[in-house]
Structure formats: structure tokens, C-alpha cells
Amino acid sequence: MKTAAAGLVVLAFAAIASAAYASAPAANTLLQPPLQHGQPVKVAIGLRIINIASIDEVKEQFELDGYLIARWSDPRLAYTPDGPDDGSREYERGQIWIPYFEMVNAVYPHDRYDVSIRGGPDGTINYFERFHVVLSSKFRLRRFPFDEQSLLIIIHPFVRQIGDVAFALYDHDVWAANELNQYSSLAQWRFRTVEPSIRTTNLYGRLSSPEARYTINVTRRYNFYLWKVFLPLLLMVLLSWSVFWVEARDLSNQVQIAVTTILTVIAFAFAISATMPRVPYLTYIDAFFLTCYVFVFLAIVELMAVHLAHRRERRGDLGIRIQRISRWAIPIAFVATNLIVIEHFLG
Q: Does 188 score more than 80 pLDDT?
């Protein structure tokens, strides 16, 4: 009896092991892509922006929170509902095949938080992923601070899935700029539109990879620079022109006004340098700074010319004429120069 019982136990364990072995391949096939006639899986991809926490034009980076949404069909997961409440079923990562997304312009791999994978009776799988990422994007700052920027989010499938996935746009991918403008903490920027596009790009010159690209269009609110940079600089330049109305013989006061003004402009430039973008080309605000430097320096040149002319002539008529001409010639030249700069950078 004992021998027979032991034999039955062995047979039972063998049957369980055999059933587990037989079911293992079926389970593993669910981790393979559901290719149809060798064609890649069509994955509809969408993006929902929750918040843009920061935009750093100095580092050419921006920080983003959002939802990544995807939908595809896996006929192997189709089922017959058990009732009216059985409209969808939840899956876990590693339980079925899912596409893996990479944001290729991320400074470091994006952080995933909440992930939801839900399948319908017809085998349609809906994927939702909450993420946080810091992305790099090329900034065009020539018109700074009157510039508009296009922030890029570039999404590829993971390298091993390149041949298994084809991207399409999610049909409910709707984004409203006004909604984000209401609670965005970025007072310096106004959000306009998000433009999605699907394309194919070459990796390493050989592999063709699907690419989803989202372009976030933003416009800078320039009021800060208008009142805190341009207006103070303009007042400093006007102050330097006061030497044109000081008595020609009063060299001491003229030099004091001119030197104090140019030192103030230099100190002001150092004070706000941290807020200026560090780019290897001139921006509009750089050109305006240089124009102010030049015309403050011209005020010093004018007062020295007046002083030398006054010393050489007893009556000092030449110095007085230079001073009178400078009263209107230099301001006109300043306005003309700025109009040329505006046309060159903003036109």
C-alpha cells in the first residue's frame, strides 16, 4: 500500500510538472510582439502635458511632466466578457508584450511613475504612463528676448523593437494651450500649440526607426526685460548726453558724468549676466548693450574734443560748435543705429 501511494504521489507531481511545462510556451508567446503576416505592430501614440516646470535657455533644457498614451491590438488577448462589468482587464508589465518607449533627447532616461495597461474584449490594449523628464532642445535665441521657441520631445521605440513597431498618431491626442497657461508656474513663457508628427528616421545610417515628434511652441513674455533692462540702459545713455549741455570749460563735471555713466553701464551688465543666454552668437539684447556702450563712449570722445578745441582757441568757438552739433547729431545717430539693429535681428 505504501509503495502504491508513493507511486501515485510521483505520478501526480509528474503530471503537474508536465502541465506547467506545456503551459510555459503559451505564456511566453504573450511576451512576443503580435505581428500580423510579418507586419510591424501599429502603435498609436499620444502625449498629454501636465506641466512644464522649467525652461532653461542658458542650458538649453526644459523639464516636463506628462502622460504617455499608446494603443495597439493584440488578438491573442481577445476574450468573451463574462458579464456587463467585464469590459476590460488589467495587465502587469512583464505579463504581456508592450512597446518600450525612449525619449532620445532626454538628458537622462525619463522616470516612470504610474503605469496602467488595460485590454478590451476585442484585444485592444490601452497603455498609460505617467513620466517626468528633463529634455534638451536647440534654442534659437537670435531675437532674445523677443523670441519664440520650439521645444522638442522625440520618442523612439527601444532598439530591439525597431522592426516590430510602427507609430501612428493617437486619434484623441488633443492639447489645449489655454488650459496649461492657467496654472503654469512659468511667468516668463506663454504656451501656444503642440504639434505632433510621425516620421521615419535613420539610426547609425542603417536602421530605419519610427519616430514620434512633439513640438511645443512657446513665446517669451518680454515685459521683464523691457522694464528691467532696456529702460534702465536707455536712461543711462540719456544721462551721458547731459555733458552736451554742461559749460564747455567745466571739464571736471563733464568727465565725472561720462565716466560714472560708463562704469554704471558696465556694472549693470555684470549684474544681469546670469540671466543672459550664453550662446556663441550675438542676440538682440547683446547688440543693444553694445550700442549703448558705443554711444556712452562717444559722449566721452565729444567732451575731450570740446576740451582740446577750447584749450587751443582763446574764444573756444570750435568747441562750442562741436558741443551744439553733438546735442542733436549723436541722439539721431543712436536712434538710426537702433533701427538698423532692430531690422537686422527682429525684421
A: yes
